[in-house]
Write a structure and sequence with these properties.
Elements lengths: L4 H15 L8 E4 L4 H14 L4 E7 L5 H17 L2 E6 L2 H8 L3 H20 L3 E3 L4 H13 L1
Parallel strand pairs: 1-2, 1-4, 2-3
Length: 147
């Protein structure tokens, strides 16, 4: 029985991949926002797949000014410490949402997923991992329901 949060994440991670197997020597992309969910996912992925097979991808939405840049620097520094490849991109999500006449969340998701898919394609990754908290999941379900 896991005793620490990090053990819970590891057990959940391993349980998921026992149900949905992915070759542990394959290249994977981990979406890294800098939040606790994506950091835990990155640490678990590096441990499970090996840091040499993991590429962390950070998308700077440029929606929170200096905070967004701070998150990007944190992600890059974390990856350097871990010895994990790091890719980043930034785009003006607000301008994109106005151009497309869509909501900011939808625009951010569209640009972020396009970035993740581009990296996955370029490195031949078999999967893209994204971390979500329970609140994120509820928001996604609600957004899909309303759509």
């Amino acid at each position: 029985m896991p005793k620490k949060n990090v053990d819970c994440v590891r057990v959940s991670f391993e349980g998921f991949f026992s149900r949905y197997p992915v070759d542990r020597s394959t290249a994977i992309v981990v979406a890294l926002s800098g939040g606790s969910d994506s950091v835990a996912l990155l640490l678990s992925a590096a441990d499970y797949f090996g840091k040499e097979n993991v590429t962390a991808a950070h998308f700077n939405h440029r929606l929170r000014g200096d905070e967004s840049d701070t998150d990007a620097r944190f992600c890059e520094e974390l990856c350097k410490k871990l010895g994990v490849r790091f890719e980043s991109k930034e785009e003006d999500v607000l301008a994109f949402s106005k151009e497309r006449k869509t909501g900011i969340e939808d625009a951010a998701r569209t640009l972020r997923y396009a970035f993740l898919k581009t990296i996955a394609s370029r490195i031949g990754a078999s999967c893209i991992l994204t971390g979500h908290t329970a609140d994120d999941l509820a928001e996604t379900v609600l957004a899909n329901f309303l759509r």
